[in-house]
């Protein structure tokens, strides 16, 4: 057995030891680097062997279903009832608040300018041009006095 074949055997022989393969054992005796590799592998196997096996504990579902059943039969405290009430009615309260706010804004009295709406008619000369450059301001001022 050569070094490459030994390394392949070592990678494939997870549960086997050197004593189970005479060819691998003979190669380890004659090759120093493979002996070092086999010793490292033995240390790693020992360390991994110290890790305890994973064992499944009892199922948690029985405790979960029991807690759900207890909660269903338990009487609600005042704080639990208020919390449940607020979670269910908070969206309805927001909608009601928006509707009443909109109704209040829609029905509030409108403030209009004194004299109501007006359109100022500008008088022009026969040529079609305004006689005075500030005719708009003058017409507005006169309309406000009425």
What is the SS-derived class? mainly alpha
The H/E string reads: HHHHHH
The parts where pLDDT drops under 50 for at least 5 residues are none
Helix content: 55-70%
Mean pLDDT: 76
Q: What's the total count of β strands? A: 0
| CA-based gyration radius | 48 Å
List the helices and strands and how they pair.
Elements: H1 3-12, H2 22-30, H3 32-50, H4 61-73, H5 78-107, H6 135-145
Helix pairs in contact: 1-3, 2-3
Question: Which key terms come to mind for this protein?
Answer:
146 residues, mainly alpha
Account of the protein in words:
- Helix content is 63%, strand content 0%.
- By secondary structure, the protein is mainly alpha-helical.
- The protein has a domain at 3-50.
- 4% of the residues are buried.
- The mean pLDDT is 76.
Task: Please provide a brief summary of the model.
With 146 residues, the chain is an all-alpha fold. It has helices at residues 3-12, 22-30, 32-50, 61-73, 78-107, 135-145.
């Amino acid at each position: 057995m050569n070094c490459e074949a030994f390394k392949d055997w070592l990678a494939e022989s997870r549960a086997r030891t050197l004593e189970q393969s005479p060819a691998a054992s003979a190669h380890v005796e004659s090759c120093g680097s493979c002996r070092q590799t086999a010793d490292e592998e033995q240390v790693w196997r020992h360390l991994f062997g110290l890790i305890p096996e994973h064992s499944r504990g009892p199922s948690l579902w029985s405790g979960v279903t029991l807690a759900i059943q207890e909660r269903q039969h338990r009487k609600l405290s005042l704080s639990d009832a208020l919390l449940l009430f607020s979670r269910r009615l908070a969206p309805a309260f927001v909608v009601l608040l928006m509707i009443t706010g909109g109704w209040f804004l829609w029905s509030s009295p409108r403030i209009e300018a004194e004299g109501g709406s007006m359109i100022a008619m500008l008088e022009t000369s026969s040529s079609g041009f305004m006689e005075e450059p500030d005719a708009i301001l003058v017409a507005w001022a006169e309309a406000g006095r009425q």
